[in-house]
Amino acid sequence: MNTLLGLLAETPSAAEQPRVTPIREQVQRPAVSSTPSVNDGQIRALVQQLFFRRESKPVRHVGFVPIEASTETATLCLEVARVLAEEDRYDVGLIDAHPDSVPLQTKLQIPSHNRAEASWPMAPRLWMVPRQSWLPDPSEQRIAEQNLSRLRELTTEFDFSILWCAPASWLTASIGQTCDGLVLVLAANKTRRLVAAQIKDQLGKAQVPLLGTVLAERRFPVPQGLYRSL
Question: Long-range contact list for 100-103, CB < 8 A, 24+ apart?
């Protein structure tokens, strides 16, 4: 299993030329902070390894999947999307692909659009895509193929899309088939190697590409305030 990068989780928790995308209303005042986080350099390294590897075919639409239900990945997805958007060459969609959680915009404390099912700009070239845009009734026990088809269509509206996914399960595998592949998010000192290997095998049987792994919730031997000053 290819490990992309070890990431901090201390905060709340050359590709081909961009294609032509639908003209969208650009936002003038970002709804999310552009202040770099403590792990900004690591996020940028992750983006380069994942999306701009010259030796592999282009990767544009990726789901981030935690193995542990307690692992927070919303902020990770937001920061990856933000770094891509800051290239100022690509339209980037941050997609809520988690059917069983509070809405992504609520978790990230991002102001919502007045239409629950519509995407809206959060920053230049960065859009929030709410769950209702592909899953009108989240209370449904079964996600229909037409919902997955709509999710697949939404990813293609952007040059890059980041999917915030539920913990690894059969449903995650189905959602993984709507994008270029999945990145597993492992929890440091918590995720067992055997469990990760089993999930890798299950994704392989479902023909879902595993693009790599990210290590989250690492702890460092210095206080966070001191670490920020290093």
Answer: 100/138, 100/166, 101/166, 103/130, 103/131
Percentage above 70 pLDDT, the chain:
75
| Residue boundaries of the structural domains of the chain | 3-8+56-229
Which residues make Cβ contacts (< 8 Å) with residue 153, sequence separation at least 6?
Answer: none
Taking only the tens place, the pLDDT of each residue in 26-75 is: 444 455 544 444 478 889 999 999 998 877 778 999 999 999 989 999 99
Domain 3-8+56-229 fold is Rossmann fold (3.40.50)
Q: What is the pLDDT of residues 75-108, one digit of tens each?
A: 999 999 999 999 999 999 999 999 888 999 999 9
**Which two structure tokens, joined as six digits, stand for 141?**
């026990």
199 φ/ψ angles, rounded to the nearest 5 degrees:
-65, -40
Classify the C-alpha dihedral 60-157-175-85 as positive or negative: positive
Which stretch of DSSP H or E encloses residue 133?
none
